[in-house]
Amino acid sequence: MLATGVRDRLVTRSADEFSALTERHLDSAYRLATVILGDAMEAEDAVHDAAISAWRGWSGLRDPDRFDAWFGRILVNACRDRLRSRRRRPVVELTPERIGGADGLVLTDGIESIAARDALARAFAVLDADERIVVVLRFWLDLTVEAIAERTGTPSGTVKSRLHHALGRLRTALTIAENDR
Amino acid sequence: MTDDRLEAEVRSMLAGRDPGAAPARLHHAVREIPVTVGRSSPLVATWRRLSPVAAGFGAVALLAALVVAVSLVGLGRPAPGPGASSTAPDASRVPFDPTADGAGIAAAPNDVPAALVIVACGILAVVATVRTKSRRLRAAASVVIGLALIVVFTLRSVPMVGWAGGSVAPGLGILDSTGGVVEDAYIFDVGPNGVLTYGFDLTNTGPLPIDILGFAPDPDGGAWALGMGPSQASVGAASIRVTAAGLLRDPSVYNLLPEDTRPWERVHVAPREQQFVILAVRAGPCALGRDNRADSTRSDDVLEKIGVVYEVVGFQAMAVVTLPKPIAIPHNTNCQLPA
Q1: What ipTM score was computed for the predicted complex, to two decimals?
Q2: Which residue in chain B is spatially nearest to A173 when comparing CA positions?
Q3: Residue A91: which pLDDT band, with cuts at 50, 70 and 90?
Protein backbone atom coordinates (compact mmCIF):
# COMPACT_ATOMS: atom_id res chain seq x y z
CA MET A 1 0.00 0.00 0.00
CA LEU A 2 1.27 3.45 -0.84
CA ALA A 3 2.14 5.80 1.98
CA THR A 4 -0.47 8.53 2.40
CA GLY A 5 1.87 11.33 1.32
CA VAL A 6 2.90 9.56 -1.88
CA ARG A 7 -0.70 8.73 -2.71
CA ASP A 8 -1.79 12.34 -2.19
CA ARG A 9 0.98 13.53 -4.49
CA LEU A 10 -0.12 11.05 -7.16
CA VAL A 11 -3.73 12.16 -6.87
CA THR A 12 -2.71 15.82 -7.05
CA ARG A 13 -0.59 15.24 -10.10
CA SER A 14 -3.39 13.26 -11.69
CA ALA A 15 -5.91 16.03 -10.93
CA ASP A 16 -3.56 18.64 -12.37
CA GLU A 17 -3.10 16.60 -15.51
CA PHE A 18 -6.86 16.11 -15.85
CA SER A 19 -7.50 19.83 -15.36
CA ALA A 20 -4.89 20.75 -17.94
CA LEU A 21 -6.28 18.37 -20.53
CA THR A 22 -9.92 19.34 -20.02
CA GLU A 23 -8.99 23.01 -20.09
CA ARG A 24 -7.24 22.48 -23.41
CA HIS A 25 -10.29 20.76 -24.95
CA LEU A 26 -13.05 22.69 -23.23
CA ASP A 27 -13.75 25.27 -25.91
CA SER A 28 -13.96 22.72 -28.70
CA ALA A 29 -16.14 20.47 -26.53
CA TYR A 30 -18.50 23.32 -25.73
CA ARG A 31 -18.77 24.34 -29.38
CA LEU A 32 -19.42 20.76 -30.48
CA ALA A 33 -22.08 20.26 -27.81
CA THR A 34 -23.80 23.51 -28.77
CA VAL A 35 -23.87 22.62 -32.44
CA ILE A 36 -25.28 19.18 -31.65
CA LEU A 37 -27.83 20.32 -29.07
CA GLY A 38 -28.67 23.73 -30.53
CA ASP A 39 -28.87 25.19 -27.05
CA ALA A 40 -25.93 26.91 -25.40
CA MET A 41 -27.14 26.43 -21.82
CA GLU A 42 -27.85 22.77 -22.35
CA ALA A 43 -24.46 22.41 -24.00
CA GLU A 44 -22.79 23.82 -20.87
CA ASP A 45 -24.58 21.22 -18.80
CA ALA A 46 -23.63 18.46 -21.21
CA VAL A 47 -19.96 19.44 -21.15
CA HIS A 48 -20.01 19.64 -17.37
CA ASP A 49 -21.64 16.21 -17.12
CA ALA A 50 -19.10 14.81 -19.55
CA ALA A 51 -16.24 16.28 -17.55
CA ILE A 52 -17.58 14.72 -14.35
CA SER A 53 -17.90 11.34 -16.08
CA ALA A 54 -14.39 11.73 -17.44
CA TRP A 55 -12.98 12.53 -14.00
CA ARG A 56 -14.75 9.55 -12.47
CA GLY A 57 -13.34 7.29 -15.15
CA TRP A 58 -9.99 9.07 -15.28
CA SER A 59 -8.13 6.15 -13.78
CA GLY A 60 -9.34 3.98 -16.64
CA LEU A 61 -7.56 6.08 -19.26
CA ARG A 62 -4.20 4.42 -19.83
CA ASP A 63 -2.81 6.78 -22.44
CA PRO A 64 -3.28 10.54 -21.89
CA ASP A 65 -2.55 11.06 -25.60
CA ARG A 66 -5.91 9.44 -26.25
CA PHE A 67 -7.71 11.98 -24.10
CA ASP A 68 -9.17 13.87 -27.05
CA ALA A 69 -10.89 10.85 -28.57
CA TRP A 70 -11.83 9.47 -25.16
CA PHE A 71 -13.35 12.69 -23.89
CA GLY A 72 -14.98 13.31 -27.25
CA ARG A 73 -16.74 9.99 -27.01
CA ILE A 74 -17.96 10.75 -23.49
CA LEU A 75 -19.20 14.13 -24.67
CA VAL A 76 -21.05 12.68 -27.63
CA ASN A 77 -22.70 10.16 -25.33
CA ALA A 78 -23.71 12.95 -22.96
CA CYS A 79 -25.23 14.89 -25.85
CA ARG A 80 -27.01 11.79 -27.12
CA ASP A 81 -28.48 11.15 -23.67
CA ARG A 82 -29.76 14.71 -23.52
CA LEU A 83 -31.28 14.52 -26.98
CA ARG A 84 -32.99 11.27 -26.18
CA SER A 85 -34.30 12.45 -22.85
CA ARG A 86 -35.85 15.54 -24.39
CA ARG A 87 -39.59 15.48 -24.42
CA ARG A 88 -41.30 16.85 -27.47
CA ARG A 89 -40.86 20.54 -27.30
CA PRO A 90 -43.42 22.94 -28.68
CA VAL A 91 -42.50 23.98 -32.18
CA VAL A 92 -41.23 27.52 -32.24
CA GLU A 93 -42.15 29.37 -35.38
CA LEU A 94 -38.96 30.68 -36.91
CA THR A 95 -39.31 34.25 -37.97
CA PRO A 96 -36.55 36.33 -39.52
CA GLU A 97 -36.19 38.14 -36.18
CA ARG A 98 -35.73 34.89 -34.30
CA ILE A 99 -33.29 33.50 -36.79
CA GLY A 100 -31.16 36.55 -36.28
CA GLY A 101 -29.92 35.63 -32.83
CA ALA A 102 -32.06 33.67 -30.42
CA ASP A 103 -30.81 30.39 -28.94
CA GLY A 104 -27.39 30.82 -30.44
CA LEU A 105 -28.89 30.19 -33.86
CA VAL A 106 -27.08 32.59 -36.19
CA LEU A 107 -27.39 31.69 -39.84
CA THR A 108 -24.85 32.85 -42.37
CA ASP A 109 -25.26 33.78 -45.96
CA GLY A 110 -24.99 30.18 -47.22
CA ILE A 111 -28.75 29.90 -47.50
CA GLU A 112 -30.47 32.45 -49.57
CA SER A 113 -34.02 31.97 -48.51
CA ILE A 114 -35.49 32.38 -45.06
CA ALA A 115 -37.93 29.60 -45.89
CA ALA A 116 -35.10 27.31 -46.90
CA ARG A 117 -33.19 28.09 -43.71
CA ASP A 118 -36.31 27.47 -41.72
CA ALA A 119 -36.91 24.15 -43.49
CA LEU A 120 -33.31 22.98 -43.00
CA ALA A 121 -33.29 23.95 -39.33
CA ARG A 122 -36.58 22.21 -38.76
CA ALA A 123 -35.47 19.10 -40.58
CA PHE A 124 -32.22 19.04 -38.59
CA ALA A 125 -34.14 19.50 -35.35
CA VAL A 126 -36.28 16.45 -35.96
CA LEU A 127 -33.43 14.13 -36.90
CA ASP A 128 -33.00 11.47 -34.27
CA ALA A 129 -30.11 11.84 -31.85
CA ASP A 130 -27.71 9.51 -33.64
CA GLU A 131 -28.37 11.02 -37.05
CA ARG A 132 -27.93 14.54 -35.74
CA ILE A 133 -24.60 13.61 -34.10
CA VAL A 134 -23.33 11.95 -37.27
CA VAL A 135 -24.22 15.00 -39.39
CA VAL A 136 -22.44 17.35 -36.98
CA LEU A 137 -19.33 15.17 -36.72
CA ARG A 138 -19.17 14.82 -40.49
CA PHE A 139 -19.96 18.35 -41.67
CA TRP A 140 -18.91 20.48 -38.76
CA LEU A 141 -15.92 18.61 -37.37
CA ASP A 142 -15.06 17.20 -40.82
CA LEU A 143 -14.37 13.76 -39.38
CA THR A 144 -14.11 10.77 -41.68
CA VAL A 145 -16.66 7.99 -41.48
CA GLU A 146 -14.10 5.81 -39.69
CA ALA A 147 -13.33 8.54 -37.18
CA ILE A 148 -17.04 9.06 -36.56
CA ALA A 149 -17.43 5.33 -36.05
CA GLU A 150 -14.68 5.40 -33.45
CA ARG A 151 -16.06 8.51 -31.78
CA THR A 152 -19.58 7.12 -31.53
CA GLY A 153 -18.71 3.49 -30.95
CA THR A 154 -20.75 2.28 -33.92
CA PRO A 155 -19.75 0.33 -37.02
CA SER A 156 -18.74 2.30 -40.12
CA GLY A 157 -21.65 0.86 -42.05
CA THR A 158 -24.07 2.17 -39.47
CA VAL A 159 -22.47 5.61 -39.67
CA LYS A 160 -22.82 5.62 -43.47
CA SER A 161 -26.41 4.50 -43.21
CA ARG A 162 -27.29 7.19 -40.67
CA LEU A 163 -25.54 9.83 -42.71
CA HIS A 164 -27.34 8.77 -45.87
CA HIS A 165 -30.70 8.75 -44.15
CA ALA A 166 -30.14 12.11 -42.46
CA LEU A 167 -29.01 13.77 -45.68
CA GLY A 168 -32.02 12.34 -47.44
CA ARG A 169 -34.34 13.95 -44.93
CA LEU A 170 -32.50 17.27 -45.07
CA ARG A 171 -32.54 17.21 -48.86
CA THR A 172 -36.27 16.51 -48.93
CA ALA A 173 -36.99 19.36 -46.54
CA LEU A 174 -34.87 21.75 -48.53
CA THR A 175 -36.35 20.69 -51.88
CA ILE A 176 -39.90 21.18 -50.62
CA ALA A 177 -39.00 24.61 -49.29
CA GLU A 178 -37.47 25.59 -52.63
CA ASN A 179 -40.49 24.38 -54.55
CA ASP A 180 -42.79 26.37 -52.31
CA ARG A 181 -40.91 29.57 -53.05
CA MET B 1 -30.32 19.68 -55.61
CA THR B 2 -26.74 18.50 -55.87
CA ASP B 3 -24.88 16.78 -53.07
CA ASP B 4 -22.33 19.56 -53.02
CA ARG B 5 -24.94 22.22 -52.54
CA LEU B 6 -26.74 20.26 -49.85
CA GLU B 7 -23.48 19.72 -47.99
CA ALA B 8 -22.58 23.37 -48.33
CA GLU B 9 -25.89 24.46 -46.88
CA VAL B 10 -25.69 21.96 -44.05
CA ARG B 11 -22.18 23.16 -43.26
CA SER B 12 -23.40 26.72 -43.37
CA MET B 13 -26.29 25.96 -41.05
CA LEU B 14 -24.03 24.16 -38.57
CA ALA B 15 -21.46 26.91 -38.69
CA GLY B 16 -24.22 29.31 -37.79
CA ARG B 17 -24.80 27.39 -34.57
CA ASP B 18 -21.17 27.72 -33.43
CA PRO B 19 -21.27 29.71 -30.20
CA GLY B 20 -17.54 30.46 -29.99
CA ALA B 21 -15.45 29.99 -26.86
CA ALA B 22 -16.87 28.42 -23.73
CA PRO B 23 -18.04 30.88 -21.09
CA ALA B 24 -15.78 31.53 -18.11
CA ARG B 25 -18.25 29.97 -15.69
CA LEU B 26 -17.93 26.65 -17.51
CA HIS B 27 -14.13 26.80 -17.28
CA HIS B 28 -14.41 27.50 -13.58
CA ALA B 29 -16.95 24.73 -13.00
CA VAL B 30 -14.84 22.16 -14.82
CA ARG B 31 -11.68 23.22 -12.93
CA GLU B 32 -13.54 22.54 -9.69
CA ILE B 33 -14.49 19.00 -10.62
CA PRO B 34 -11.35 17.24 -9.29
CA VAL B 35 -11.83 19.10 -6.01
CA THR B 36 -15.55 18.62 -5.56
CA VAL B 37 -16.23 15.29 -7.25
CA GLY B 38 -14.90 11.99 -5.95
CA ARG B 39 -13.08 9.84 -8.41
CA SER B 40 -13.93 6.21 -8.90
CA SER B 41 -11.27 3.68 -8.12
CA PRO B 42 -10.07 1.62 -11.09
CA LEU B 43 -12.06 -1.30 -9.71
CA VAL B 44 -15.27 0.72 -9.53
CA ALA B 45 -14.66 2.23 -12.96
CA THR B 46 -14.19 -1.23 -14.44
CA TRP B 47 -17.27 -2.51 -12.65
CA ARG B 48 -19.33 0.44 -13.94
CA ARG B 49 -18.28 -0.36 -17.48
CA LEU B 50 -19.10 -4.00 -17.09
CA SER B 51 -22.25 -3.68 -14.98
CA PRO B 52 -24.80 -4.02 -17.82
CA VAL B 53 -22.98 -7.08 -19.10
CA ALA B 54 -22.66 -8.38 -15.57
CA ALA B 55 -26.38 -7.86 -15.00
CA GLY B 56 -27.18 -9.97 -18.05
CA PHE B 57 -24.80 -12.74 -17.15
CA GLY B 58 -25.88 -12.48 -13.53
CA ALA B 59 -29.50 -13.04 -14.46
CA VAL B 60 -28.57 -16.07 -16.54
CA ALA B 61 -26.31 -17.40 -13.77
CA LEU B 62 -29.07 -16.87 -11.22
CA LEU B 63 -31.48 -18.71 -13.44
CA ALA B 64 -29.05 -21.61 -13.88
CA ALA B 65 -28.43 -21.72 -10.13
CA LEU B 66 -32.15 -21.81 -9.42
CA VAL B 67 -32.71 -24.61 -11.90
CA VAL B 68 -29.83 -26.61 -10.44
CA ALA B 69 -31.09 -25.96 -6.91
CA VAL B 70 -34.60 -26.99 -7.81
CA SER B 71 -33.40 -30.15 -9.49
CA LEU B 72 -31.13 -31.00 -6.54
CA VAL B 73 -33.73 -30.31 -3.88
CA GLY B 74 -36.29 -32.18 -5.93
CA LEU B 75 -39.13 -29.68 -5.70
CA GLY B 76 -42.11 -31.35 -7.28
CA ARG B 77 -40.42 -34.72 -7.49
CA PRO B 78 -42.96 -37.48 -7.10
CA ALA B 79 -43.36 -38.67 -3.57
CA PRO B 80 -42.32 -42.29 -3.22
CA GLY B 81 -45.30 -44.56 -3.11
CA PRO B 82 -45.87 -47.34 -0.67
CA GLY B 83 -44.12 -49.81 -2.91
CA ALA B 84 -41.13 -47.64 -3.54
CA SER B 85 -39.55 -47.63 -0.14
CA SER B 86 -35.78 -47.83 -0.43
CA THR B 87 -35.12 -47.49 3.28
CA ALA B 88 -36.13 -51.02 4.16
CA PRO B 89 -33.29 -53.06 5.64
CA ASP B 90 -33.21 -55.44 2.69
CA ALA B 91 -34.31 -52.97 0.08
CA SER B 92 -32.00 -54.45 -2.56
CA ARG B 93 -33.99 -57.69 -2.58
CA VAL B 94 -37.49 -56.24 -2.27
CA PRO B 95 -39.44 -57.09 -5.44
CA PHE B 96 -41.86 -54.84 -7.25
CA ASP B 97 -45.32 -55.31 -5.80
CA PRO B 98 -47.85 -54.51 -8.55
CA THR B 99 -50.75 -54.57 -6.12
CA ALA B 100 -49.33 -51.74 -4.03
CA ASP B 101 -50.77 -48.69 -5.73
CA GLY B 102 -48.70 -45.53 -5.97
CA ALA B 103 -45.10 -46.62 -6.62
CA GLY B 104 -43.91 -45.03 -9.86
CA ILE B 105 -46.99 -42.84 -10.19
CA ALA B 106 -45.61 -39.35 -10.75
CA ALA B 107 -47.01 -36.08 -9.63
CA ALA B 108 -47.98 -33.60 -12.33
CA PRO B 109 -44.90 -32.04 -13.98
CA ASN B 110 -43.40 -29.31 -11.84
CA ASP B 111 -43.85 -25.89 -13.47
CA VAL B 112 -41.63 -23.98 -11.03
CA PRO B 113 -38.35 -24.06 -13.05
CA ALA B 114 -40.13 -22.91 -16.22
CA ALA B 115 -41.85 -20.15 -14.28
CA LEU B 116 -38.49 -19.10 -12.83
CA VAL B 117 -37.04 -18.85 -16.32
CA ILE B 118 -39.91 -16.66 -17.46
CA VAL B 119 -39.53 -14.43 -14.40
CA ALA B 120 -35.76 -14.20 -14.93
CA CYS B 121 -36.35 -13.29 -18.58
CA GLY B 122 -38.73 -10.57 -17.46
CA ILE B 123 -36.15 -9.20 -15.01
CA LEU B 124 -33.46 -9.31 -17.67
CA ALA B 125 -35.75 -7.50 -20.10
CA VAL B 126 -36.41 -4.75 -17.56
CA VAL B 127 -32.70 -4.46 -16.72
CA ALA B 128 -31.78 -4.32 -20.39
CA THR B 129 -34.40 -1.69 -21.11
CA VAL B 130 -34.00 0.57 -18.08
CA ARG B 131 -30.36 0.20 -17.10
CA THR B 132 -28.67 -0.16 -20.45
CA LYS B 133 -28.39 2.43 -23.18
CA SER B 134 -26.19 0.34 -25.43
CA ARG B 135 -28.12 -1.10 -28.35
CA ARG B 136 -25.60 -3.89 -28.56
CA LEU B 137 -26.24 -4.98 -24.99
CA ARG B 138 -29.97 -4.70 -25.49
CA ALA B 139 -29.69 -6.86 -28.57
CA ALA B 140 -27.61 -9.36 -26.62
CA ALA B 141 -30.21 -9.40 -23.86
CA SER B 142 -32.95 -9.95 -26.43
CA VAL B 143 -31.03 -12.89 -27.86
CA VAL B 144 -30.52 -14.39 -24.39
CA ILE B 145 -34.20 -13.94 -23.54
CA GLY B 146 -35.34 -15.36 -26.87
CA LEU B 147 -33.05 -18.36 -26.62
CA ALA B 148 -34.05 -19.04 -23.02
CA LEU B 149 -37.75 -18.97 -23.88
CA ILE B 150 -37.24 -21.16 -26.95
CA VAL B 151 -35.23 -23.66 -24.92
CA VAL B 152 -37.84 -23.79 -22.14
CA PHE B 153 -40.71 -24.08 -24.60
CA THR B 154 -38.90 -26.81 -26.53
CA LEU B 155 -37.95 -28.77 -23.43
CA ARG B 156 -41.50 -28.57 -22.14
CA SER B 157 -43.35 -29.36 -25.35
CA VAL B 158 -41.20 -31.67 -27.47
CA PRO B 159 -41.49 -35.24 -26.18
CA MET B 160 -38.12 -36.78 -25.45
CA VAL B 161 -39.25 -40.26 -24.54
CA GLY B 162 -41.30 -42.82 -26.40
CA TRP B 163 -41.53 -46.27 -27.91
CA ALA B 164 -38.85 -46.67 -30.55
CA GLY B 165 -38.54 -50.41 -30.72
CA GLY B 166 -37.26 -52.92 -28.19
CA SER B 167 -38.93 -55.50 -26.02
CA VAL B 168 -42.57 -55.91 -24.99
CA ALA B 169 -43.68 -58.45 -22.43
CA PRO B 170 -47.08 -59.17 -20.87
CA GLY B 171 -46.99 -60.41 -17.30
CA LEU B 172 -49.68 -61.13 -14.73
CA GLY B 173 -53.11 -61.92 -16.18
CA ILE B 174 -52.15 -62.41 -19.82
CA LEU B 175 -54.72 -64.45 -21.67
CA ASP B 176 -54.18 -64.06 -25.37
CA SER B 177 -52.97 -61.68 -28.03
CA THR B 178 -55.71 -62.14 -30.59
CA GLY B 179 -59.46 -61.80 -30.70
CA GLY B 180 -59.77 -58.55 -28.85
CA VAL B 181 -61.88 -55.61 -29.89
CA VAL B 182 -58.68 -53.80 -30.78
CA GLU B 183 -56.43 -55.60 -33.19
CA ASP B 184 -53.08 -56.89 -32.03
CA ALA B 185 -53.66 -56.16 -28.36
CA TYR B 186 -52.68 -58.16 -25.31
CA ILE B 187 -55.87 -59.45 -23.71
CA PHE B 188 -55.75 -59.83 -19.95
CA ASP B 189 -58.05 -61.80 -17.69
CA VAL B 190 -57.71 -60.39 -14.19
CA GLY B 191 -61.23 -60.18 -12.81
CA PRO B 192 -62.91 -57.13 -11.24
CA ASN B 193 -60.32 -54.65 -9.92
CA GLY B 194 -57.59 -57.16 -10.68
CA VAL B 195 -54.03 -56.15 -11.51
CA LEU B 196 -52.04 -57.04 -14.61
CA THR B 197 -48.42 -56.31 -15.41
CA TYR B 198 -46.98 -55.19 -18.71
CA GLY B 199 -43.39 -54.36 -19.57
CA PHE B 200 -41.81 -52.55 -22.48
CA ASP B 201 -38.78 -50.52 -23.48
CA LEU B 202 -38.94 -46.75 -23.27
CA THR B 203 -36.39 -44.94 -25.44
CA ASN B 204 -34.87 -41.54 -24.82
CA THR B 205 -35.63 -40.06 -28.24
CA GLY B 206 -34.18 -36.63 -27.50
CA PRO B 207 -30.64 -35.23 -27.68
CA LEU B 208 -30.28 -34.74 -23.92
CA PRO B 209 -30.15 -37.19 -21.02
CA ILE B 210 -33.40 -37.48 -19.12
CA ASP B 211 -34.60 -38.82 -15.79
CA ILE B 212 -37.84 -40.78 -15.95
CA LEU B 213 -39.78 -39.83 -12.82
CA GLY B 214 -42.82 -42.04 -13.23
CA PHE B 215 -46.14 -42.39 -14.99
CA ALA B 216 -49.39 -40.50 -15.09
CA PRO B 217 -52.47 -42.42 -14.02
CA ASP B 218 -54.36 -40.83 -16.90
CA PRO B 219 -52.44 -39.15 -19.70
CA ASP B 220 -55.44 -37.72 -21.50
CA GLY B 221 -58.04 -37.21 -18.86
CA GLY B 222 -56.41 -34.19 -17.28
CA ALA B 223 -57.09 -35.30 -13.74
CA TRP B 224 -54.08 -36.29 -11.73
CA ALA B 225 -55.52 -38.65 -9.18
CA LEU B 226 -55.61 -42.35 -8.78
CA GLY B 227 -58.93 -43.75 -9.82
CA MET B 228 -59.38 -41.63 -12.94
CA GLY B 229 -59.72 -43.67 -16.07
CA PRO B 230 -58.03 -43.14 -19.43
CA SER B 231 -59.85 -41.54 -22.33
CA GLN B 232 -60.45 -44.91 -23.90
CA ALA B 233 -62.41 -46.09 -20.88
CA SER B 234 -65.92 -47.28 -21.61
CA VAL B 235 -67.09 -47.31 -18.02
CA GLY B 236 -65.84 -43.96 -16.84
CA ALA B 237 -63.78 -43.18 -13.83
CA ALA B 238 -63.88 -46.68 -12.41
CA SER B 239 -62.19 -48.22 -15.44
CA ILE B 240 -58.72 -49.43 -16.33
CA ARG B 241 -55.82 -47.32 -15.06
CA VAL B 242 -52.08 -47.40 -14.35
CA THR B 243 -51.59 -47.78 -10.61
CA ALA B 244 -47.89 -48.57 -10.14
CA ALA B 245 -44.62 -49.14 -11.96
CA GLY B 246 -41.48 -51.15 -11.39
CA LEU B 247 -38.15 -52.07 -12.94
CA LEU B 248 -36.22 -55.21 -13.82
CA ARG B 249 -33.73 -56.37 -11.23
CA ASP B 250 -31.36 -57.49 -13.99
CA PRO B 251 -31.73 -55.29 -17.11
CA SER B 252 -30.75 -58.23 -19.30
CA VAL B 253 -33.39 -60.61 -17.94
CA TYR B 254 -36.77 -59.75 -19.44
CA ASN B 255 -38.87 -61.56 -16.91
CA LEU B 256 -41.80 -60.05 -15.06
CA LEU B 257 -41.83 -62.60 -12.25
CA PRO B 258 -41.69 -60.83 -8.86
CA GLU B 259 -38.23 -62.16 -7.99
CA ASP B 260 -36.82 -60.62 -11.16
CA THR B 261 -38.25 -57.16 -10.52
CA ARG B 262 -37.56 -54.33 -8.15
CA PRO B 263 -39.53 -51.30 -6.97
CA TRP B 264 -39.65 -48.15 -9.03
CA GLU B 265 -37.05 -45.45 -8.67
CA ARG B 266 -36.06 -42.41 -10.70
CA VAL B 267 -34.23 -43.69 -13.80
CA HIS B 268 -31.52 -41.87 -15.73
CA VAL B 269 -31.55 -42.58 -19.48
CA ALA B 270 -28.89 -41.30 -21.88
CA PRO B 271 -29.85 -40.15 -25.39
CA ARG B 272 -30.89 -43.03 -27.68
CA GLU B 273 -30.69 -45.50 -24.80
CA GLN B 274 -33.60 -47.64 -23.62
CA GLN B 275 -35.07 -48.47 -20.24
CA PHE B 276 -37.39 -51.41 -19.68
CA VAL B 277 -40.27 -50.43 -17.42
CA ILE B 278 -43.02 -52.51 -15.86
CA LEU B 279 -46.50 -51.12 -15.48
CA ALA B 280 -49.10 -52.36 -13.04
CA VAL B 281 -52.55 -51.76 -14.52
CA ARG B 282 -55.68 -52.22 -12.47
CA ALA B 283 -58.91 -53.32 -14.14
CA GLY B 284 -62.27 -51.77 -13.42
CA PRO B 285 -64.99 -53.33 -11.30
CA CYS B 286 -66.76 -54.75 -14.33
CA ALA B 287 -63.82 -56.70 -15.73
CA LEU B 288 -64.71 -60.23 -16.67
CA GLY B 289 -63.02 -62.95 -14.75
CA ARG B 290 -63.25 -65.43 -17.56
CA ASP B 291 -62.66 -65.60 -21.27
CA ASN B 292 -66.19 -65.40 -22.61
CA ARG B 293 -65.54 -64.08 -26.09
CA ALA B 294 -68.90 -65.20 -27.36
CA ASP B 295 -70.74 -63.30 -24.71
CA SER B 296 -72.87 -60.62 -26.38
CA THR B 297 -72.51 -58.32 -23.37
CA ARG B 298 -68.74 -58.36 -23.53
CA SER B 299 -66.56 -55.49 -24.63
CA ASP B 300 -62.96 -54.48 -23.93
CA ASP B 301 -61.45 -51.74 -21.84
CA VAL B 302 -58.38 -50.71 -23.80
CA LEU B 303 -55.34 -48.78 -22.69
CA GLU B 304 -53.33 -47.53 -25.67
CA LYS B 305 -51.41 -44.57 -24.31
CA ILE B 306 -49.69 -43.69 -21.09
CA GLY B 307 -48.24 -40.48 -19.75
CA VAL B 308 -44.51 -40.59 -18.93
CA VAL B 309 -43.27 -37.84 -16.63
CA TYR B 310 -39.59 -37.04 -17.05
CA GLU B 311 -37.06 -34.40 -16.22
CA VAL B 312 -34.57 -32.87 -18.63
CA VAL B 313 -31.97 -30.30 -17.44
CA GLY B 314 -34.11 -29.43 -14.46
CA PHE B 315 -37.38 -29.01 -16.35
CA GLN B 316 -40.17 -31.53 -15.96
CA ALA B 317 -42.49 -32.52 -18.77
CA MET B 318 -44.90 -35.27 -19.72
CA ALA B 319 -44.83 -37.25 -22.94
CA VAL B 320 -47.89 -39.21 -24.06
CA VAL B 321 -46.46 -42.50 -25.23
CA THR B 322 -48.35 -44.98 -27.38
CA LEU B 323 -47.87 -48.51 -26.08
CA PRO B 324 -46.30 -50.95 -28.55
CA LYS B 325 -49.29 -53.24 -28.02
CA PRO B 326 -52.53 -52.01 -26.44
CA ILE B 327 -53.75 -53.55 -23.19
CA ALA B 328 -57.27 -54.95 -23.45
CA ILE B 329 -59.39 -56.19 -20.55
CA PRO B 330 -62.75 -57.78 -21.35
CA HIS B 331 -65.61 -56.42 -19.29
CA ASN B 332 -69.34 -56.83 -18.99
CA THR B 333 -71.23 -53.97 -20.59
CA ASN B 334 -74.32 -54.68 -18.53
CA CYS B 335 -72.38 -54.39 -15.32
CA GLN B 336 -73.89 -51.98 -12.81
CA LEU B 337 -71.21 -49.82 -11.27
CA PRO B 338 -71.34 -49.40 -7.52
CA ALA B 339 -72.76 -45.99 -6.56
Answers
A1: 0.78
A2: B6
A3: very low
Would B99 be classed as within a structural domain? no
Question: What is the tens place of the pLDDT at every residue in A37-56?
Answer: 988 999 999 999 999 988 88
Q: Which residues of B touch A37 (CB under 8 A)?
A: none
Count of domains observed in chain B = 1
Q: For position B39, what pLDDT does the model report?
A: 62
DSSP B178: S
Helix, strand, coil percentages for chain A (3-state, nearest 5): 80, 0, 20
User: Does residue B118 surpass a pLDDT of 70?
Assistant: yes
Domain contains B270: yes
State which H helix or E strand residue B58 sits in: helix B42-73
| Cβ-nearest to A19 among B16, B34, B133 | B34
List the CATH number of the domain containing B294.
Answer: 2.60.40
Mean pLDDT of chain A: 78
Using alpha carbons, list the distances in angstroms from residue A18 to A13, A53, A124, B338. Answer: 9, 12, 34, 92
Contact criterion met (CB < 8 Å) for A109 and B21: no
The average pLDDT across B106-119 equals 84
Q: Which of A1, A13, A30 to mutate to test the interface with B (most CBs of B within 10 A)?
A: A30
Residues in B closer than 8 angstroms to A48, CB to CB, are: 26, 29-30, 33
Domains of chain A by range and CATH? 1-86 (1.10.1740.10), 93-181 (1.10.10.10)
Domain assignment of residue B322, given as a range? 161-332
Which residues in chain A have Cβ-Cβ distances shorter than 8 Å to B137? none
CB contact under 8 A, A26 and B22: yes
Q: Does the residue B102 lie in any domain?
A: no
